[in-house]
Amino acid sequence: MTADCPHCPGAISPYNLNEDEATIAGGRELFHQPCKACPPFSTQEQGLCSTCQHLRLRHLVSCVPLPNRRKFLFHLYPDRKENATVDCPCCRLIQHMVSQAFGENPLSDLMPEDWSLSLFLSSEYSKSYNTVADIYLQFKDGDEGMSNMWIGDIHVADVGKIQTDISSVGEQINWPRLRAAINKCTTDHIGCKSDGNANLPQGFRLVDVARRCIVETSDVDFVALSYVWGKDTRASLLTATRKTIEAYKKEGGLVASDMPQTIEDAMNACTKLGTNYLWADRLCIIQDDPEDKMHQIMAMNDIYESASLVLVSAYGDSMDFGIDGVSRSRSVTQHHIDVSGLRLTNLVRESAEDPLSLWQTRGWTYQEAVCAKRLLHFTNTRAYYECQTSTYYEDMYNPEAEIDEFTTYGVRLDGEDLVFDAFERHLANYSSRKLSFPSDVYNAFIGIANLLYGPNYNQLFFYGLPKIDFDRALRWHAWNGVNSIQRAESSTLTCPSWSWASAMIQGEQVRYQDMAFYGTLTLWTAKTSDPERWEVLNLQAGTKVDENWETNMTIAIGAGCFRISPIEKLLRSSDRITVHERFCARWSNYDSFCRESIPNPGEPRLQDPATGIMGLGYIHTIAQAAFFRLGQRKASQYGVGILDANDQIIGELCGGLTKFQEEALNPENKSHEHEFVAISLSGFHIRPYTGEERTTKNYVDKEGANLDAIPIVNVLLIERKNDLAYRKELGWVYMRDWAVAARCWRSVVLG
Questions:
Q1: Helices 419-431 + 446-453 axis angle, to 10
Q2: pLDDT digits (tens, 9 = 90+) for 319-329
Q3: Would residue 534 be called left, alpha or beta, if left means φ above 0 and alpha means ψ between -120 and 50 degrees?
Q4: ∠ at Cα 167 (162, 61), nearest 5°?
Q5: Spans of all domains in the chain
């Protein structure tokens, strides 16, 4: 630091507040230390203000080691703040980024008095001849001290080592860049091609872009549109109905002045991409024809899978909002400046919580993205192309990126060995989104269900649960539990309390716990269309269970979890290999074991008079039940424990219990015993952090070795009203504790 330097005192602050004064003083030397590698600097040639000249950006980026520069936040015109020198190119670039983040309002009107803008040089310059610099707004946050708010980032590259024709984000979409990405994918990516198994529905319609009319055809390449309907902003907006469809089939029938702007912009995008046919549900499904509508909904996966490309209007709150960069100029653009042989470019990003980014919050659009092979996203700031393997951005400052498994819409991911693994992931994502109409809760997931389990949804699913994985699927829980989960029923919708749909329509995300699954303890039956016939829902050939299910079933039989013990001879030895060999000798698979070992509830009307008053979505079983009290988990203030007669925790309820916990742990309910019914077997994976229960609650084989997973019983906490039962919460109990509890067999009509 030069003694008389007016800039050094306010030029830096430590990124880590624990840095000592000596480190900070060393940071100030970065602005003045001699460097033979840096070219002479001419303020007049660069046109920089004195503050930006003092920064010595090229030296910081190319000469100062990454660990050294990452210790500091470098302040930008800290004294002048937004009244920066307008003639300075660096200041103008920062002002451009601030205005895009906050609008035209001065920061002095928005922030507390004590604030500044800072630069953080985060990535390595030498590896790719470029770096990314983050811009932060620092401000005093009451008594909490200083806080940082991310404003944006800047791409920094050596002018001599970058492409001269590099594309960037302007006011209009860069169609050549996007077409090149799509063509490359079409030519090179085998995994992005359609497998040809999709079957478009009868009467399939498309928009003929050139002739501006609706045509019925299924033998042409077409693009599909995924967008947010929102509210009709104009009464005259075009929509296909029984009354209008014939007029729309005539050439010129789709009048531009009455076309929803988003669909009109999608038609223009088709022209830019060299495609003449567009599928948009508002115009291609007859909205007031229930039969046509359901026929198309059942084939939604085929429609989006067959599309050569899906256009995603990812920004906007209605179908009349339009697409930025098509019908209107984008307000967020990239600017470039050259400083000391460096090219500085502001990177374009989407706002994290923009209220108009509704597409990624809607249930229907999630399904559309999953079913699609190729997606072209349009936000308010940029466009990007996403396929099964990569993401290509409109600007070349964001390099091609491989798909992240945590954000991809892929139907099946590597490592998802079971179909249910993918079902679980998609259901968690889907249920985190919103539906404009609760009646769509099943329909907006049918396409994904068809892709995973096959096209016969009505035969393969029962109120949202796959029959072949019915017992796994019953083990859902609400993630937050802010609202009470209860049966919902109307003239158009039935959501049983045991179905995840009852949670989703309450605004709850649905999750599953990461446990091994060993099979069912009871059979569930339901009415069929024939009132004299009942279907066993969870007795399906092909149901998968996890390794060592034979051992755990033997333990459950020994613990009295079955009404009739089918394998007395097997109980003489608990050696895992012996049990496995004997199971395989008697039962070739899990399905054959269930059919012989678990009694069918029989004719429900003979077992429980309540079945005579069952409505839609009720299921019946005879299950083992026990009554337990609830209490606070001792290890944490979060969660609800299941208590035995000695007030010892023997299990817990699953998921978020915000609402139920208040009721269950109320001192007035301390002595209340809740009814729990056993539904299936699972196992807790033993982790390094697992406590003493790894031995006290576990079982051992003949050699004395602990099992790999601690056996537990999955239970439903139910409430009975007028002889009918309703699911309240999901829980589990250690098998060791369930085996010694007071239990009984009870008929359960669950709705």
A1: 170
A2: 999 999 999 99
A3: beta
A4: 35
A5: 8-161, 175-331+351-402, 432-751
